[in-house]
């Protein structure tokens, strides 16, 4: 699992195989964070707000394609 670069050669190869589900390292990390937020607070995490913030930060730091974090 890698956070930078988001698209590794291995991930690209896996995405080319029909029927394989893939996720970037950042997507996995966010999913874990959202689940922990719910467990710790009992509240639904602000998924859309967090995802938008990550995409905005990524755009400032890199030209790597933006991922969907839902």
Gyration radius from CA atoms, angstroms: 13 Å
Shape: globular
Percent in helix: 55-70%
Computed structural class = mainly alpha
> Uncertain runs with pLDDT below 50, 5 residues or more?
62-67
Number of strands: 0
Compute the number of helices.
3
N-to-C series of helices and strands: HHH
- Biggest sheet, in brief? none
Please indicate the percent range of residues in DSSP E strands (runs of 2 or more).
under 5%
Textual characterization of the structure:
56% of the residues lie in helices and 0% in strands. The protein contains three helices and no strands. The relative contact order is 0.18.
Entry summary:
The chain has 70 residues and is mostly helical. The chain has helices at residues 9-15, 25-41, 47-61.
Write the layout of secondary structure elements.
Blueprint (H helix, E strand, L loop, with lengths): L8 H7 L9 H17 L5 H15 L9
Name the features.
about 70 residues; mainly alpha; 3 helices
